[in-house]
Amino acid sequence: MYLSTVERPRKLGWKGLSGNVFALGTVSLITDVSSEMVTAVLPLYLVVGLGLSPAAYGVIDGVYTGATTLLRLVGGYLADKTDRRKAVAGTGYALSAVAKLGLLIAGTSTALLGAAITIDRAGKGLRTAPRDALITLSTPSGDLGRAFGVHRAMDGVGAFLGPLVALAVLAAAADSFDAVFVASFCVAAMGVVVLAMFVRDHRSTLPAREPVRVKEIGTLLRDSRVRRLVIAAAVLGLATIGDGFVYLLLQKREGLTIGWFPLLAVGTSLVYLLLAAPLGALADKIGRLPVMLAGYVALATAYLLIHSPLDGIPLHLAVLALYGTFYATTDGVLMALAGPALPERLRTTGIALIQSGQALAYLGSSVLFGLAWKYFGPETATRLAAAGVATALVTTAYLLGRRR
């Protein structure tokens, strides 16, 4: 039996969470093994293997996250309109799995690589909002921080294992990137199977449900609470550079080889999976906004440390610890913050709207950082990024503080 956000009083302890949260977490764990296998090697493959400039990589990195903004909205709208969130999410997971084979077929063609990456992110765009909506609709509102924390922790286990699997495949296949892409497809297909077998859909409990119309997206934006969340998400997305840039900056400074490069993502994921659940619970206890803002303080500090006097292993440990903390305090917390502000019948559309604002801004961020690296150098570009985070932090505190 499914729980809406108001179906029962809050339970203390981790046992109060729905089995659907753990089923969705398992799907995300498996899928993240697949996606992080590719993510861990893709920056090095594009910049070192294919010789792309930082500016060109910035465009592809932006496409990787931001170019499917419209599909996020489409996925959210379809899930609410059809009341079949699982089916929409499953389509997204399947698209991402097929895209792994597209990377193999693309070879060294930048255009085909871009197309495969776009299909992969289209799948992510379709699945993310329905998945997060299923979590909010399967959990009492007072436990949303814990629910997203547990889900993101399981997601983090996959993110931790993915680069290790990629490292093992590279070692076994004589540094063959194609072998990584094939193995990634096989793992992603397993995630689709688990979704189909174990995740239960959430059908609306509202009587005489009216069909969701496109114009209701505008209705959502007329709500000041939702509008502030969308603006804040966009501001934060504009201030965030991609993981690949952070790892490339560390690789460039320390001269890491291909074999060791995936371990940077492992370090971030290890911190993330250890902290996501407890920090989600902390957000429920002391407030989600302070925890999220603390994460962006950690992000700005990580950016500044990359070109500080610190070097070697201490530099890697400090940057990756701060970067993992940033994800643990922000990734699920923003959705937990948004959930209670969105009506149930438009929950998925509202989440997609917030995520779309963040993804579109991220596209701009990646392109701008790539250009700044090219024309001003990596050190100046990174310091500008840290200043952008500080500005976004103040803006978000004002917007969401007023919302509260």
TrEMBL record:
InterPro entries: MFS (IPR011701), MFS_dom (IPR020846), MFS_trans_sf (IPR036259). This is MFS family permease. SUPFAM superfamilies: MFS general substrate transporter. It is a multi-pass membrane protein. Keywords: Membrane, Transmembrane, Transmembrane helix. Residues 20-404 form the Major facilitator superfamily (MFS) profile domain. The chain crosses the membrane at residues 42-64, 156-174, 180-199, 229-250, 256-277, 289-306, 318-338, 359-376, 382-401. It comes from the Bacteria. Its main location: membrane. One of its GO terms (cellular component) is plasma membrane. It is found in: Cell membrane. GO terms for molecular function: transmembrane transporter activity. It comes from Saccharothrix violaceirubra.
